[in-house]
């Protein structure tokens, strides 16, 4: 990810409609797994640390994280995070069978990540009977040159490709659903327009993450939050993101 994008993330993650809904969806999934103050949780690829803060404040103080980016690490102190370190998801610096939950949010699409190796490492550090919560972007046709270059993404997933990656002898997919489905037509039109008419030659690529009017931000959040309430108990058949919950064999 481009260095300037971490500053944008830090400034917008707590208020921008998309991030708010994403974080709440993640917390919903963790609560449904019974995560409480005793659970050991790892954020594999924590970025600036917003999810670490959310879990620490709302579910469990036993939350650890890491990210490969030195640029991301500058923001950990600003969030008062101390159980974080610099490391790659391809080689997780924790002992085997350590965590009850490993969460990975928008990591597997990154160019520096080897998805099979990273997933194997997540399963390794997970306790028997523990869960991986994986969130990835959906649909290759939503790729746009400048945005994905700015955030370091080189791939997106379909349900079938994610299922193929996550299906392992020692792990079982217990849930998989799309989300951000209600706004998919709007996202699709916007992304396709950018693909064909956007500026593909900026020397410094920039993501699509930009502030919107507070009323628009509130409206969009209300739409996706309504969808979030549905996704708690039902499977969404389409959407620009996919969430999978995987259980490691054992206890």
TrEMBL record:
Pfam families: Methyltransf_11. GO terms for molecular function: S-adenosylmethionine-dependent methyltransferase activity. SUPFAM superfamilies: S-adenosyl-L-methionine-dependent methyltransferases. Residues 42-134 form the Methyltransferase type domain. GO terms for biological process: methylation. Keywords: Methyltransferase, Transferase. PANTHER family: MALONYL-[ACYL-CARRIER PROTEIN] O-METHYLTRANSFERASE, METHYLTRANSFERASE. This is Class I SAM-dependent methyltransferase. It comes from Desulfomonile tiedjei.
